[in-house]
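anyone seen this seq b4? input:
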Amino acid sequence: MGTRKIIFPCVVGVVFMLTLFCMSTLENGALVMKKIVSSIYLGITDTSRAESRREELLRMLPQINTHGVDCSRIFVGDDEEIKKAQNITKVRTIPDRDFLRLTRHCTSYRRRGYMTKPVSDEEERYPIAYVIQIYKDLVQIERLLMAIYRPQNWYCINVDLSTGEDVHIGMIAIASCFDNIVINSVDVVWGRISLVEADLTCMQLLYNKNKDWKYLITLAGQMFPLKTNLDMVRIFKSLNGSNAVAAITKKRNPIRWSNLPTPSIPVRLVKGGCHFAVTRGFVRYVLFDKRARQFKKWASKTYIPDEHYVQSLSHSPKLEAPGGYTGWPENGENGYEEIMRYVKWCYDGSECHGKFVRCVCIFSVADLPRMANSHKMFVNKLYYDYEPMALTCMEQRHYQWTRQDILGMNDDRINITFYRNLPNVKHHIPSGLEN
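predicted toks r here
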């Protein structure tokens, strides 16, 4: 097939040259022919290079063992295939302690499935930064990292100090094989300001490390992407410089700060998810603006500040935080559309085929069909050791879509119009990323 692609332009080029030659003088015709030959040669060379690059990228994709399960049938709700996948309760994994051995030779380790070259020029020109909080299960962290890793992106991984030694040492070893992964270590106590401080410390590291990334995403280790890197680049472009920080006011749990005086800055107190995507301009604001620092001091005395610190800053028009929302958070009872996380709570009345752990649904294989066409960018949560085929099938679909990105076959996969029409996109404070 590749030979035909090269021969065809050659034949067309030769015919075209002869025609021009006959229509011109001998001297002029020779000059024209020389220029066309050079042009055709460059075209053939470019085509050959592009094909070589695609082949190299395709070889980087990891091979996912689906244990005889047809994951494509699961995503369309095939009950028989879902039951078949649910019967697989345990799959072979890598012990945390083995990562120190695997990373002794970085070149070999990177071949495990990391995309070490940009999949497209569009992605290379639009780097993304990540803050990832982890405290266990290095094997699952690696699977998340493989899916989202790109050489142009930047990653800060906060390893909780309470994490086991094997996880901590293993994560440092993995990071040592990449120039764009940095490790942070903050002792995180749930419900306290330490989780916010872990995010902010990573934001500072990433802000200082690289000046080119456009958006920053915060994740936890049990999340997994519902979109490819190229999808997310196009989604962020469509957000036009607005933050993706969903929040509500009606159910904001004011008891979390009821014993404190009102903040001294004009902030609208809201509650939102602890995972979000914000612009570089907003990160700069959070790190260096005097009022943001004042609000952090106030928030440090509240309960679960990771659900209202960044969220309130991004929903307070008077503070003029870049990318912030100028409208009212509520759009009905649940706030405006959250695009970061596909998550199910024990109190929201939605179905969970898996199990609830601390009120959050740990998704089952049977939950996959519902998230198949979601507008969300990440699913929260999947456990590699609970219905393991749920994570495995998510991986297989993700790499199938990445393959489509490599081959240029992804134009209709996401609905950009949906993202462009979000309330936060229509009503936001400029951040410098606007089209």
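Residues 95-426 form a domain with the Spore Coat Polysaccharide Biosynthesis Protein SpsA; Chain A fold (CATH 3.90.550). The chain has 18 helices and twelve strands. kinda curious what u guys think
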